[in-house]
Amino acid sequence: MNSCYYDAFPEELESIDDNDDIIEVSYQGDIIPLWSQCVGCHKGDEPPDLRDNVSYEDLLNGYVVPGDAEASILYKSLLGIDGVSLMPPGSKWPDSKINLVKNWIDQGAKDN
Questions:
Q1: What is the DSSP code (8-state) at residue 46?
Q2: Looking at the domain assignment, is residue 65 inside a domain?
Q3: 9, part of any domain
Q4: Which has more confidence, 12 or 82?
Q5: CB atoms within 10 A of CB 39
Q6: Is the pTM of this model over 0.70?
Q7: Which domain holds residue 98?
Q8: pLDDT of 40-57, one tens digit each?
Q9: Which of 7, 50, 60, 56 is nearest to 27 (CA)?
Q10: Per-residue pLDDT for 100 more than 60?
Q11: Is the dihedral of CA 17, 21, 24, 25 positive or negative?
């Protein structure tokens, strides 16, 4: 009795597009609600002005580098790094909120 052995070729796996898992962050729906914790101080007297109707323009005027959270003062302030004071003072936000801001900036800091 003779038998032959053949190696089975594995099925080719379809490539997975990692971009399918990226959820677009909305400035209006996701980011503006975060500022409710900040407007006690950042209401026009202390920059940046984080009131709803002016916050986007104020942030893009030196606090946010669209597409580059690591270079953005806003992101650095949430971490308290690179000589930028921690905001809010004395109490770091949860990573989930910081990552939301980071993702929004890295996605181009759109006013959406």
A1: S
A2: yes
A3: no
A4: 82
A5: 14
A6: yes
A7: 24-106
A8: 999 999 999 999 999 999
A9: 56
A10: yes
A11: negative
